[in-house]
Specification:
alpha/beta; elongated; 37% helix; 6 strands; 166 residues; 6-stranded mixed sheet
């Protein structure tokens, strides 16, 4: 009886491995992803050994741009529909490290401090001296943390922000 249970367990495990193997999808090359997910407004900036993908759209005459931070398992495409609602607003959005075309951090540092350094570097390289920051989920946590340490943040929008007390 015990050997029947072992055989059954082995068969189930073998079936699971076979299903995973049969349906696995190999990673696509970065050039293929760039071709599919970038457009004429896509830009890249070197930060912490990564090429951070961002888009800076809308009129530069807007004195206070909107910086958008996406949530977990997402990308800057989260905010596509927002561009249509604010055609007169300068909107900056990025693929946070670990997501989208930006890809992984070279040393696997996913600390809040690393994300703050990335945002500091991006805003410095884009010469943004003040902004409104909006974030969704994990991006809300980052927006909240960024606003706490940066008086240059003139407004904060949190959408279901992680880590924010209810």
């Amino acid at each position: 009886m015990r050997s029947n249970k072992n055989i059954m367990l082995f068969a189930v495990l073998a079936l699971i491995v076979l299903i995973i193997w049969a349906f696995q999808t190999p990673d696509l090359p970065l050039d293929t992803l760039k071709e599919k997910y970038t457009n004429t407004t896509s830009r890249f900036v070197a930060v912490e050994g990564m090429q951070v993908h961002y888009r800076d759209e809308g009129p530069r005459t807007d004195s206070i741009p909107l910086l958008l931070l996406h949530g977990t398992a997402s990308s800057l495409h989260t905010w596509d529909s927002l561009l249509l609602k604010f055609p007169h607003k300068r909107i900056i959005r990025l693929d946070l490290p670990g997501y989208g075309i930006t890809g992984p951090h070279p040393t696997a540092d996913y600390s809040t401090q690393m994300y703050m350094r990335v945002l500091d570097s991006l805003t410095a390289q884009l010469a943004i001296d003040r902004c409104i920051v909006a974030g969704n989920s994990f991006g809300g946590l980052l927006a909240w943390q960024y606003a706490l340490g940066h008086p240059s943040v003139k407004g904060l929008v949190l959408i279901d922000a992680a880590g924010f007390p209810s």
